[in-house]
Amino acid sequence: MNLEEFIQNFAEQFDDTDASEFKAGTVFHELPEYSSLIALSIIAMIDEEYDVTLKGDDMKSAVTIEDLFNIVKSKQ
Prior knowledge:
The structure is a single chain. The protein is an all-alpha fold and 76 residues long. The protein has a single domain (3-74), classed as Non-ribosomal Peptide Synthetase Peptidyl Carrier Protein, Chain A, CATH 1.10.1200.10. It is 53% helix and 0% strand.
């Protein structure tokens, strides 16, 4: 698992946000398109791609995409 691949998978959960918006330091909670529905699809993607079960608290505690990546990595 690498960060670039994780960012790409993360970006695929958004329909209207340009892929260039997604970087390791992106504060994803502040993206205009981010919603609870997208949070659920991110959790589902992480479960499917990385076999890691995230909780809502994990999503809340992560500020950037890289923070979320590190949480997922720590649970593998």
